[in-house]
Amino acid sequence: MRLEAPAGALAELAAEVVQCRRCPRLVAWRELVATEKRAAFRDQEYWGRPIPGFGDPRARVLVLGLAPAAHGANRTGRVFTGDRSGDFLFAALHRTGFANQPHSVAPGDGLELSDCWITAAVRCAPPANRPLPVERDNCAAWLARELPLLERVRVVVCLGGFAWEAALRPPFCATPRPRPRFGHGAEHESGGRTLLGCYHPSQQNTFTGVLTPEMMDAVLDRARELAEA
Fold first, then answer.
1. I need a surface site. Which of 17, 34, 95, 141 has the fewest CB within 10 A?
2. Is residue 130 part of a domain?
3. Is the pLDDT score of 57 beyond 90?
4. Rounded CA separation 64/77 (Å)
5. What order of strands is seen across the sheet that includes strand 193-198?
6. Are 156 and 126 in contact (CB under 8 A)?
7. 39: in domain
8. Which domain holds residue 23?
């Protein structure tokens, strides 16, 4: 039996995403990592495929990341799950009322998001966390199909400059001139939605204090305020 939209349509899209092989470099890397594994996870079976979006199909807030981590989502099969960046993000989502628990370990762990959907500009783990422009453009086609299914989204929280730049392109908005600059807390309105900048919760940022829990919470609280306005 066909699921009701938008949940059914999003599930169908996810089934297509996980079969994607458009980018030979990313396919080779994600599968190599899934085979060689990290020593700490050598007994685990890696996902090793593209990562679909996850969350509440009725969300008004969309969190847009860069790409899956090689030993995080590429291992677990769920966006921002299984690495330190995800630990920081989900703890913040829990504190601000978007998640029912402060941790994300693996699909089936009981995590539920409320009024929030999480996805990434690039769906496969890239070498050195640096997707090529052509890879970003290939994945833009998935975003172009995903966004219209998230009919209630009013705020896009962009985690880092890469996500901010991806959101300044179709399907999120017509490329503005001049281009608004990324910054933590930066806002840009386009097409009935607000882009909201947030430093990426990478260890490089969170371990050095560039991004603190209070800073992350403030952005998510602002996202809720904008979504409810």
1. 141
2. yes
3. yes
4. 17
5. 54-55, 116-120, 61-65, 155-159, 193-198, 187-190
6. no
7. yes
8. 7-228
